[in-house]
Structure formats: structure tokens, C-alpha cells
Amino acid sequence: MNFICDNLMAEKKAEECIVVMCNGMIGEENEEGINLSPFDAFEKVLTEEVIPYIDSHFRTLKDKKHRAMAGLSMGSMQTSYMTLRRPELFAYARLFSGFVSNFLTGENEHLEHLDEYKESLNVYFRAMADRDPFLKMFLHDDELLKKHEISCVRKIYFGGHEWKVWRRCLNDFLPLLFR
């Protein structure tokens, strides 16, 4: 990722930016043990810890039009969740091997905000590989977005649920940011 970003910026194909990568697999401990809480807990960590930390330690432009969120695989569900629930924070969203709906738990209250989504984002980028085992879910989300008249940059690459595909996604997405 760092080489793709650095090369695109050096070639003036992408705007200079700060990239922050979080591990969204947050566990919450209770009497039954540790359970993953990849949505609500991640939202809290991102909004109350990560964004304030970055904004206070780096020279950032602290508004939505200068902030993007992206995720691959499970991170794409978190990106959908966050950008739909918190449209005031992000003007760009990208889903690599990505999902709009949460097919894992069926918790899809974030989809209630789909009608406002089209005014919220400058660029909405979704991509998947033609041999990805989750391609059916991606195509299902196509219909969901079509129903709500949400346009997006949509790509299907050759490959599976793998880094080879995600690198191509990043290479295509970064030049779209902050223009």
C-alpha cells in the first residue's frame, strides 16, 4: 500500500494525503469471554480515539471533504456502516471486495440512511474480483444501490478475495480522492 500511494503521489496522479490503517477487529470482553464487535465498538474507537488523535498530531484538514474511509473485506462492511451512519465525517468511501449490507450478522440499520447517501459522498468506489466467493453478495448490493439510485464507481477485476485484487483497487481509487 505504501509503495502504491507514494508512487501515485510522486507521479502527481493522486493528491498528497495521510493514510491511517486501523485494525477494526475490536474485541469486547464480557462474562462469556471476548467477542468481536466490529461495528459499534469500531465506530467508537474511530470517532473518539483515532480521528481526534490524527487531527491533533498531524497537519490535517479537519472536515469531511478532506477525509475518506476505505476498507477491504470485513473492513468494507465497517466502511459502509460508518459512512452511512456518520455522513458528516467522510466525503469518500471505497469498498474493496466490498459489501454495503451486513450479511454476517444481518444487522443492517445503517441501510436506513441509503437515501441520503447519494448527497453525502463525492466518490463512492466499489470493487470485487470475478472469482471472489462473495461475488453474489456484491451483485446483491448492486441491486440495493440501484433501488436507492446511488451511483458509484464500480469495478470487477480478475482474481479472488486477495491482495492482488486489492492492490489494483487502491491504484484505481487513490487518483479519485480530494479532486
Key features?
four-stranded parallel β-sheet; Rossmann fold; alpha/beta
Describe the overall structure.
- There is one protein chain.
- The protein has 179 residues and is an alpha/beta fold.
- The chain has a single domain, classed as 3-Layer(aba) Sandwich (Rossmann fold), CATH 3.40.50.1820.
- 39% of the residues lie in helices and 17% in strands.
- The chain has helices at 2-10, 40-57, 74-85, 114-120, 135-147, 163-173; strands spanning 27-30, 33-36, 68-72, 92-96, 123-129, 153-157.
- Strands 3-4-5-6 form a four-stranded parallel β-sheet, sandwiched between helices. A two-stranded antiparallel sheet has the order 1-2.
- It starts with a helix and ends in a 6-residue tail after the last helix.
The pLDDT mean sits at: 90
Question: How much beta, percentage-wise?
Answer: 15-25%
**Form type:** globular
**How many strands, which pairing sense, and closed or not: the largest β-sheet?**
4 strands, parallel
Share of residues in helices: 25-40%
Q: Which architecture name does CATH use?
A: 3-Layer(aba) Sandwich
Quick one: how many beta strands? 6
Strands of the biggest beta sheet: in what spatial order? 3-4-5-6
Number of domains: 1
Give the termini separation.
20 Å
CATH class call: Alpha Beta
What is the H-and-E element order? HEEHEHEHEHEH
Number of helices: 6
